[in-house]
Amino acid sequence: MKYMLIMRTPEMVEMPEDVDFTEVINAMGAYNESLIKAGVLLAGEGLAPPDEGFVVDFDATPPVVTDGPYAEAKELFNGFWMIQTSTKEEAAEWAKRCPLGPGMRLEVRRVNETEEFDQDNEYVQKEHEWREQLGTDRPVQG
């Protein structure tokens, strides 16, 4: 099963001045290395600050691109990991090992597998082909 671990922080959180950023990077690197050595890491990226992003609002036709709104946001996504584990409990164990500090949260969501959809659907069949071409499907280790 694939799970996405979504790193969330309160909108206004800033890193305390007494925190050594090199230590943060090293802790994250060690966590990523443990995921790789266990064979569960599929992908992972940190996200740039929200002021470098934008929102596409589909309430209008055509959709409208804006710099926000982030005014209603209470939490921001700061990065993610995509892992593949044998069980939900294993995903939870990996999530608990993530070196995040107070005020930060990790949301864990199972990723739908193409096998869960109608296999006769044209686009489900194409999805299988695309994943094979991209090399994104791989068996669960462990």
From TrEMBL:
Residues of the YCII-related domain: 1-103
Listed PANTHER family: BLL7163 PROTEIN, BLL7171 PROTEIN-RELATED
Family matches, as Gene3D superfamilies: Dimeric alpha+beta barrel (3.30.70.1060)
Classification via SUPFAM superfamilies: Dimeric alpha+beta barrel (SSF54909)
Top-level lineage group: Bacteria
Composition-biased stretches (Basic and acidic residues): 123-135
The name this protein goes by in its record: YciI family protein
Chain segments carrying region Disordered: 118-142
Pfam families in the record: YCII
Classification lineage: Bacteria, Bacillati, Actinomycetota, Actinomycetes, Propionibacteriales
Family: Belongs to the YciI family.
InterPro entries: Dimeric_a/b-barrel (IPR011008), YCII (IPR005545)
